[in-house]
Amino acid sequence: MAERSMVLAVSSAITLMILASAAWAHASEQGFVLLLPTDVYIAAGGATVALTVALLAVLPGRVAGAIFRPLPLAVSPPRPRHILSLVATAVLLWLIWRGLSGPRDPMLNPLSLSIWVVFWIALVSLQGLIGDLWRWINPWSGMAALVARVTRSRAPLRYPKALGHWPGVLSFLAFAGFLLADPAPADPARLAVTVAVYWAGHMVGILLFGGPWLLRAEGITLLMRSYARMGLLGRARGRLVLGLPGWQVLARPMPSLSLAVLMLILLGSGSFDGLNETFLWMGWLGLNPLEFPGRSAVIGSNLLGLLLTNLGLIAVFAAFLWLGARLAGERAGPGLLIRRFAPTLLPIALAYHIAHYLTSFLLDGQYVLGWLSETLGAGHVHVTAGFLNSPGPVRLIWMTQAGVVVAGHVIALLLAHAIAVRAGQSTRRAALAQAPLALFMVAYTVFGLWLLATPRGA
After folding, report:
1. What DSSP string describes 63-126?
2. Please, what's the b/e burial string for 307-316 (b: 16 or more CB within 10 A of its CB; e: otherwise)?
3. Cα angle value 126/130/134 (rounded, 5°)
4. Considering only CA atoms, which of 288, 213, 253, 241 is closest in space to residue 457?
């Protein structure tokens, strides 16, 4: 009875945190100084995560796993056979054409708005909050099925199993490098060529190697499938089920090492996305943030920073896991430990993605509405950034961002504890094993909140 009460209490706390931070939270590309007692919020966020660690050390071992037990809703509906994927492909090709022939202003061109606002901000966030939407609308599977049906042929080559998900890791890093280091990633013509080459290249890979290419070598699909593990809704035994964010992390098999590394890169790339705009990063590069020379001057620095940030995160994460395993008397190697615990960082990566892009969504989303309104003949939509000049909305934005980040770290700790217990460790040994990991997460909480609050120069 006591265990049930603890499960109910912890579940209620998580639910309240999630509901309290349900507003879209993103960080603008042109940051602003939040005139708030940020040191207090950062300290409170770190303390919340630290208290969660202490709570897990005394709770019965089965509590964390019980929190994430999903509830069946209904028989899972049949999936549309590639129809939505073909529609998505047609829309993407039209957007590429508009990128080449439409207005040069990224805020007026539907390609730039669709890629960076609708897809990168909204759809990625919805994928992590709701569930696997991407499997219905990815722009490759429908076309591949159509070609196979017309030609009545199968893929001529077999995807090499030895490659694992490493080609997908490189594919996502290429996408992240374009986003963070290209001089003008939102320029419609430049973006159109990049998207067209990316789509065509992977389309050729799918036609040559079949479905395994999409599931192992295409970085965006790997990104979306990884974040789908955080969705509230999922499929289990032919039924649609609902659970707390992260329940699918526990329900799915342990990822391969290459896929686990990708999950770490999602967090590292998101962190660098915030770091490379700060005065601190500009200082490291020897640049005056008030006289920023432009992105073309820091292409090499940003690419190197992206690579080093991810390598550093992987190394530090592996070291903390190894130390925790030794404290608990476990002899598992770094590879197995990364595979086991990398999925627990998905809620943190998703939280940073949502929190980092709040003001971009609030501002650039108005341009999306404006384009839709004018296209449909509904009139002009006035775009305003006035809410960034008022203390009330700015305070609400910051508290929402902070709440999302802290909630992500708390969920990550609960998942890590549940996985440790499932691996056969007692509550005491799980607490010992998680002590270094918990220290890592507390430090990352403070770092993440600092990234959201620090002034930006680019």
Report:
1. HHHHHT--EEEEEPPPPP-SHHHHHHHHHHHHHHHHHHHS-S-TTT-HHHHIIIIIIIIIIHHH
2. eebbeebbee
3. 65
4. 288
DSSP 390-440: SHHHHHHHHHHHHHHHHHHHHHHHHHHHHHHHHTT--HHHHHHHHHHHHHH
In degrees, to the nearest 5, what angle opens at C-alpha 217 toward C-alphas 216 and 223? 75
From CA 59, how far away is CA 156, in angstroms rounded?
A: 54
For tokens 């708005």, the residue is 113
* pTM for the whole structure: 0.87
Strands 233-236 and 71-75: unpaired
Half-sphere exposure of 98 (CA within 13 A, CB side): 17
Number of other CB atoms surrounding residue 362 within 10 Å: 19
Residues 6+ apart with CB under 8 A from 290: 457
Nearest to 452 by CA among 269, 289, 274: 274
Task: Give the residue from 452, 432, 439 showing the smallest Cα distance to 409.
Answer: 439
| Among 11, 70, 68, 81, CA closest to 237 | 70
Tokens 């374009």 belong to residue: 178
Q: Are strands 239-242 and 71-75 parallel, antiparallel or unpaired?
A: antiparallel
> How crowded is residue 182: how many other Cβ atoms within 10 Å of its Cβ?
18
350: helix, coil or strand? helix
Residue range 152-185, pLDDT digits in tens: 889 999 999 999 999 999 999 999 999 999 999 9
DSSP string, 1-13: -HHHHHHHHHHHH
| pLDDT tens readout for residues 29-74 | 444 444 445 666 666 666 666 666 666 655 665 666 667 777 777 6
